[in-house]
Amino acid sequence: MDLDGTLIRTDVLWESLVQLVKRRPLQALAIPFWWSRGRANLKREIAARVELDVAVLPYHQPFLAYLRTEHRAGRTLILATAADRRLAEPVARHIGLFADVVASDGTTNLRGHNKVRHLTERLGPRGFDYAGNSTVDLPVWQGSRRALVVNADERLAQRARKLTEVSHVFNEPRRLLAALIGALRPHQWVKNLIILVPLLTSHQLVPSALLANALLAFAAFSLAASAVYGLNDLLDMEADRHHPSKRARPLAAGTLSVPVGFGLALGCFCLSIVLALLLPPPFLLVLGGYFVLTTAYSLRLKQLALVDVFFLAVLYTMRLIAGHAATGIKYSPWLLAFSMFLFLSLALVKRFTELRTLRADKEQDARGRGYSARDLEFLATLGIVNGGLAVLVLALYVHSPEVAGLYHSPILLLAVCPLLLYWISRVWLLAHRGLVHDDPIVFALRDAVSYAIGGATLAILWLATHW
């Protein structure tokens, strides 16, 4: 049977290429040179520089269960793959079912006609059944006794039937659209509503030109965020597979291929730039800074304890800055300070929930992060303190000269402080109880109390403006 797309739902060449770019980006510059010497050489050079965690690869479980049954029945199983032997052999050892492995060796790329030639020389004409998943496997099926079609559509099975007998079809419904939407993470776009905050706090939601610019900025940032999430998911596939919920992400689960994931991220990036060009030049600078910082975060900074959460708070605040840049509304130092403290607290909630899960699983170190389960109490203290500081900044803002010109009864704004303090305290309490999603924004979207507090806050703002 084949490896890529058959035994596993991904491609080890693409997986190893991503790992090389992540861990040794300078060496990745040599890829065109390696490729010029043949595809088999390219696979060997990459395989010599990376090591995949084969225990968490997305295996095709129904097909793997079938192989175990056949192995118990005494059938000889051979892993025949175009992947390099250095990557295929660890998979074979992990599965523990294969009598042998035939694979690319740095000189011969064992796919298509090369594969069927090798198998025929070894096992005789039509001396084997072969499991594959793509059109590349058609020549191998033509030379096989029977075909097993895995993880492919019915059209491929029909083509295989014209070449040989098809004994089994392991076909599952393909939900490409759902996988694409999942990779975009549109539920995370709600974070970009922060762009509208400058319009709200300056009481300029009504002018249509400013609102149109803000909505355009929202769309640009949402596409930018999806591009960043795509890049982050590509670089974090292996770490995500160790996470109880992140392992279901399309790239980690293998429901979306690496090339498609990369193309989706690149397309979102290009569209976000096109939209940004329709807005004032400062917005493009902010969006460019967001891309640079998020890329740095994905490549390295998220692995550094505390640096990661401070960067998350900065990235949230950049959405606020983007709202000012898109509309030309004057910056408020009070609003920027409030944003930093509030979002630092929420970023710490995110890390706290991850470490709490780690401790519950009796593990110590967070994979791909700079934390251990021992840091749980420290992060909770730091997060609660920053949440309180955000409320303090809001209380001081109520007494600032800026408020007098915006609100008829600014003293009413003090009523927002206990509401916000209650919400932050409740989030931390529920996080402590293990009842908060690893992303507090997602939690708020599903929480009726959060909606009630948000509605009450808007009502207070209206009363302070008109009374």
Q: What labels would you give this structure?
A:
mainly alpha, Tetracycline Repressor, domain 2, two-stranded parallel sheet, 467 residues, elongated, 2 domains, 22 helices, three-stranded parallel β-sheet, Rossmann fold, single chain, 5 strands
Question: What order do the helices and strands come in, and which of them pair?
Answer:
Elements: H1 12-23, H2 31-36, H3 39-47, H4 61-72, E1 78-84, H5 85-95, E2 100-104, H6 113-123, E3 129-132, H7 138-142, E4 146-150, H8 154-161, E5 165-170, H9 176-184, H10 197-201, H11 208-235, H12 237-240, H13 250-253, H14 258-276, H15 281-299, H16 307-327, H17 333-360, H18 376-398, H19 401-404, H20 416-432, H21 440-445, H22 448-466
Parallel strand pairs: 1-2, 3-4, 4-5
Model description:
The chain folds into two domains: 12-174, 3-Layer(aba) Sandwich (Rossmann fold); 177-466, Orthogonal Bundle (Tetracycline Repressor, domain 2). Strand 3 (129-132), helix 7 (138-142) and strand 4 form a beta-alpha-beta unit. The chain has a three-stranded parallel β-sheet with strand order 3-4-5, covered by helices on one side. It has helices spanning 12-23, 31-36, 39-47, 61-72, 85-95, 113-123, 138-142, 154-161, 176-184, 197-201, 208-235, 237-240, 250-253, 258-276, 281-299, 307-327, 333-360, 376-398, 401-404, 416-432, 440-445, 448-466; strands spanning 78-84, 100-104, 129-132, 146-150, 165-170. The protein has 467 residues and is mainly alpha-helical. Helix 17 (333-360) packs parallel to helix 20 (416-432). The protein is elongated, with a radius of gyration of 27 Å. It contains 22 helices and five strands.
